[in-house]
Amino acid sequence: MYNYCLLKFENIVNNYGSLVPIEQNEDIPFNLKRIYYIFNVEDGITRGHHAHRKLQQVLICISGSVKIRLKTPKSEESIELNDPSIGLFIGTMVWGEMYDFSKGAVLLVLASGEYDESDYIRNYDFYIEESKNRY
Ligand code: T46
Q1: Active site residue 52
Q2: What is the largest CA-CA distance in the chain?
Q3: For 76, which of 2, 6, 68, 85 is 20 to 30 Å away at the CA?
Q4: What is the signed CA dihedral for 25, 28, 34, 36, rounded to 10 degrees?
Q5: Along the 135 residues of the chain, how does pLDDT read in single tens digits?
Q6: pTM
């Protein structure tokens, strides 16, 4: 079913600063296949506008802040990410949009699979239709 939630990672703080370790299957609920990061996003830009059929991801704003709008056929919610020790897990068939990137924001994404364009649903009407057929 539709699934997303916040994950709190251990933040190891000492006199030299902070360090957040993340291990697959320990701190995130899948085998890690890919990472990518998004930065240099200008004011007023919204990214995303899609859902994934199979891919699971964890989004971590490692610098600055960004808002994530999460939609399912039954709900809509916005979550601000502004803490490098918090991850947003997004499971399959959740519509996501990223917006309000602060200056210097860096959004790190941990993904369960390789890049595959056929895994994306980029049209909202198709997303609603495919969700109905799936659930
Ligand atoms: C997602 C959100 C959070 C690649 O060639 N390889 C990759 O691994 C990725 C992620 C993208 N691309 C290409 C595909 C497009 O030509 O990079 C271009 C920009 O991708 P897109 O418009 O999909 O970017 P976002 O920010 O809308 O979405 C991305 C991820 O694609 C998506 O899976 O969940 O970040």
Answers
A1: no
A2: 54
A3: 85
A4: -160
A5: 889 999 999 999 999 999 999 999 899 999 999 999 999 999 999 999 999 999 999 999 999 999 999 999 999 999 999 999 999 999 999 999 999 999 999 999 999 999 999 999 999 999 999 999 888
A6: 0.98
